[in-house]
Structures are given as structure tokens and as C-alpha cells.
Design goal:
Helix content: 40-55%
Number of helices: 5
Number of domains: 1
CATH class: Alpha Beta
CATH architecture: 3-Layer(aba) Sandwich
CATH superfamily: Metalloproteases ("zincins"), catalytic domain
Shape: globular
Strand content: 15-25%
Structural class: alpha/beta
Number of strands: 6
Length: 172
């Protein structure tokens, strides 16, 4: 089953990293792949914001009480499958994704894949959080989330080019 319409609103609030050509389209396709995989059959909206390390550190401190930079933050607008609805469009507003572009660059180099793949990975990871998935307890929840991430990325042609280890502090 396909989501009826997925609107991904992307805003670039940093100037340290040039946004790669085509990444916005890939992000939209990756979000659609996640929602399709989850049998999400309603119109949906996701807001994505690119920021620098200091901005994400301030947001992490303000909202999570953690005074450290991170790669991505998720701010859900729903709980247990019930989301706020945009009165103008009728779409379910899943929430906000905030990505540190300098951190995305560093991680793409560390894991030896493209910046496009890293930004899409962070978007998919965060979107799964918006849908209620959590990997912090590890175990099968972590495995299930990683499988869903890789399935969505594979659907848009961004298969992993090797194995890598992600510790829990890297992805929020």
C-alpha cells in the first residue's frame, strides 16, 4: 500500500556544507519508501532542517538536556500512530527532522559512502523515530530498525557499500 502523498519540506539553515545536487529528491523518495514499507496510507508531511553543529548542540541541550552535538534529532508530532493534521492540506504531520550537515559530512567520510547516502540515512533513521521506532534498548528493536533503514535506502538505490558499526550516541 502506498502513502497517498508525501510532502517533505526541506530548509537549509547552514552555510558550511553545500547541499549535493539531487539530495532533496532522494530524501523525498527515501521518505516515501519508509512510509510505503510501513503501509502508511494517508497523506503525510515531514519537515527537515539542515543546520550546523552549534545549532544542533543547542537544540540537543534544550530539548534533551544533553550538551553535545549529534548528527540528527527527531521531534515527533504524534504518538501511537495518531498525528497532528495540517488543517490546510489534511495531511498527517509526522514531525521535524534536524540534521547536522557538518556531522553528516564527517560520517560519510568515516563510513566511506556518499554524502547523499548519509543524509538519506539520517532522514530515514529519524523518520522511523517519528513513526515510533526506538533503538535505544538495543536487541531486536535495534536490528528491526536497521533492517527497515537499509530496506528503504535500497529502494532508492543507496545500498550500503560495506559494513559499519553505529554506536547509540551517533544517532538520536
Amino acid at each position: 500500500m502506498l502513502p497517498r502523498r508525501v510532502r517533505v519540506i526541506i530548509r537549509n539553515d547552514q552555510d558550511e556544507v553545500k547541499i549535493p545536487t539531487g539530495v532533496r529528491m532522494l530524501m523525498r523518495r527515501a521518505c516515501t519508501a519508509v512510509l510505503t514499507g510501513e503501509d502508511f496510507n494517508a497523506d503525510a508531511e515531514v519537515y527537515v532542517r539542515f543546520v550546523d553543529d552549534e545549532t544542533i548542540r543547542a537544540l540537543n541541550k534544550k530539548h534533551r538536556g544533553i550538551d553535545e552535538r549529534t548528527d540528527v534529532l527527531s521531534f515527533p508530532l504524534g504518538e501511537n500512530g495518531i498525528y497532528d493534521v495540517n488543517p490546510e492540506t489534511g495531511a498527517q504531520m509526522l514531525g521535524d527532522v534536524v540534521i547536522s550537515m557538518p556531522r553528516a559530512v564527517a560520517q560519510s567520510e568515516r563510513f566511506e559512502h556518499s554524502l547523499q547516502r548519509e543524509v538519506c540515512y539520517l532522514t530515514v533513521h529519524s523518520l522511523l523515530h517519528l513513526l515510533g521506532y526506538d533503538h535505544t534498548s538495543g536487541g531486536m528493536d535495534l536490528v528491526r530498525m536497521r533492517e527497515k533503514e537499509e530496506a528503504a535506502l535500497s529502494k532508492v538505490g543507496l545500498k550500503r557499500n560495506g559494513s559499519y558499526y553505529m554506536d547509540g550516541a551517533e544517532n538520536g
